[in-house]
Automatic annotation (TrEMBL):
<protein>
    <submittedName>
        <fullName>Non-heme dioxygenase N-terminal domain-containing protein</fullName>
    </submittedName>
</protein>
<dbReference type="GO" id="GO:0016705">
    <property type="term" value="F:oxidoreductase activity, acting on paired donors, with incorporation or reduction of molecular oxygen"/>
</dbReference>
<dbReference type="InterPro" id="IPR005123">
    <property type="entry name" value="Oxoglu/Fe-dep_dioxygenase_dom"/>
</dbReference>
<dbReference type="InterPro" id="IPR050295">
    <property type="entry name" value="Plant_2OG-oxidoreductases"/>
</dbReference>
<dbReference type="InterPro" id="IPR027443">
    <property type="entry name" value="IPNS-like_sf"/>
</dbReference>
<keyword id="KW-0408">Iron</keyword>
<keyword id="KW-0223">Dioxygenase</keyword>
<feature type="domain" description="Fe2OG dioxygenase">
    <location>
        <begin position="191"/>
        <end position="292"/>
    </location>
</feature>
<dbReference type="Pfam" id="PF03171">
    <property type="entry name" value="2OG-FeII_Oxy"/>
</dbReference>
<dbReference type="InterPro" id="IPR026992">
    <property type="entry name" value="DIOX_N"/>
</dbReference>
<dbReference type="Pfam" id="PF14226">
    <property type="entry name" value="DIOX_N"/>
</dbReference>
<comment type="similarity">
    <text>Belongs to the iron/ascorbate-dependent oxidoreductase family.</text>
</comment>
<dbReference type="GO" id="GO:0046872">
    <property type="term" value="F:metal ion binding"/>
</dbReference>
<dbReference type="GO" id="GO:0051213">
    <property type="term" value="F:dioxygenase activity"/>
</dbReference>
<dbReference type="InterPro" id="IPR044861">
    <property type="entry name" value="IPNS-like_FE2OG_OXY"/>
</dbReference>
<keyword id="KW-0479">Metal-binding</keyword>
<keyword id="KW-0560">Oxidoreductase</keyword>
């Protein structure tokens, strides 16, 4: 397995090897600055004792999920120092020697710890300018045994972000017109899958020819993201690619994912996004993907189904089977989700 970090650090690298040449669809509208601001959700108001403030924020969450599938979350309670430390420790992991990291190289999509490159190295026709570390942190906590202190930081971070995820899921349940705990129970969130992912995008000599990650949607319910301050994330909004450049301090970026689209019967769509690279600095994104329990059969909530106005739009499927289907193949937009549409 040839990792991008080592390739990027080669002193004689002046061009992108042909295996990384990614040709985008020339008919797609180019990325542009948004004409409107990315929505912001005040997490503290989702649990406010003031019924009016809470109701208003639930409406804002509903609007963000319907119109964007993407939003910033502020006042979430996760310490800024912890968010910075998890980025720092993640960077330390990638700076270890190849021999130290070799123990964690991926073999299977459900390995508790996976260190790899591209997306699916064995099946990707074109490789992506990205190395990654993926760690399953719930329902059982896992972590590489190095660098020093990584496990303690990751354990606290995974617990804290899990509570943010739970709060968002309860808010989404209400915004869909369901009981607050309906989604949490139906999707068995208490034993749900939580994956910690670090993406490393080193400088690329020809960033216009390569891509960090191609257009795709995530497989879970929703994803929480932070980064090291380097731009590179783009989301698709109203058919155009939008650069996510400016974010509020100490905020999470959240995108809706495929299982939420299925559960909401299409009311909330999972958002397509991609990662572009640059030729100057390394970008690190730290992602926490939150999903149902692996053995949960995910289906549209029965209260959101009406035979005449809103018939069932997706075939019920075990989350584990969906995850393996998406992660075990090439990643192409929302093709995986389209396969189970009725």
């Amino acid at each position: 397995m040839n990792f991008v970090k080592a390739l990027a650090e080669s002193p004689d690298l002046n061009s992108v090897p042909s295996i990384y040449n990614y040709s985008t669809n020339s008919n797609e509208p180019l990325a542009s600055d948004p004409q409107e601001s990315i929505p912001t959700i005040n997490f503290s108001l989702l649990n406010s004792t003031d019924a009016d403030l809470r109701s208003k924020e639930i409406q804002e969450l509903d609007k963000a999920c319907k119109e964007w599938g993407f939003f910033q979350v502020i006042n979430h309670g996760v310490p800024e120092a912890l968010m910075k430390m998890v980025i720092e420790k993640s960077y330390e992991f990638f700076n270890m020697t190849d021999e130290e990291k070799k123990d964690f190289e991926e073999k299977d999509v459900l390995d508790p710890i996976r260190y790899g490159t591209s997306f699916n190295f064995k099946k990707d026709i074109v490789l992506y300018w990205r190395d990654f570390l993926k760690v399953i942190v719930h329902p059982e906590f896992n972590c590489p045994n190095k660098p020093l202190g990584f496990s303690e930081v990751l354990f606290e971070y995974s617990q804290r972000t899990r509570e943010v995820a739970r709060g968002l899921l309860n808010g989404i349940s209400l915004s869909l017109g369901l009981d607050q705990s309906y989604a949490e129970k139906a999707l068995e969130f208490e034993s749900g899958l939580q994956i910690f992912v670090v993406n490393l995008y080193p400088p690329c000599p020809q960033p216009e020819l390569a891509i960090g990650m191609p257009p795709h949607s995530d497989h879970g319910l929703f994803t929480l993201l932070i980064n090291n301050g380097v731009a590179g994330l783009q989301i698709k909004h109203k058919g155009k690619w939008v650069n996510v450049n400016k974010t509020l301090p100490n905020s999470f970026l959240v995108n809706t994912a495929d299982q939420l689209e299925i559960f909401s019967n299409g009311k909330y769509r999972s958002v397509e996004h991609r990662a572009v690279v640059n030729n100057a600095v390394t970008r690190i994104s730290v992602v926490v993907a939150n999903g149902p329990a692996l053995d949960t059969v995910v289906r549209p909530a029965y209260k959101l189904v009406d035979e005449e106005t809103s018939p069932v739009a997706y075939v019920p499927m075990k989350y584990k089977e969906y995850l393996e289907m998406q992660q075990g193949n090439q990643i192409v937009g929302k093709k995986c989700l389209q396969r189970i549409q009725v």
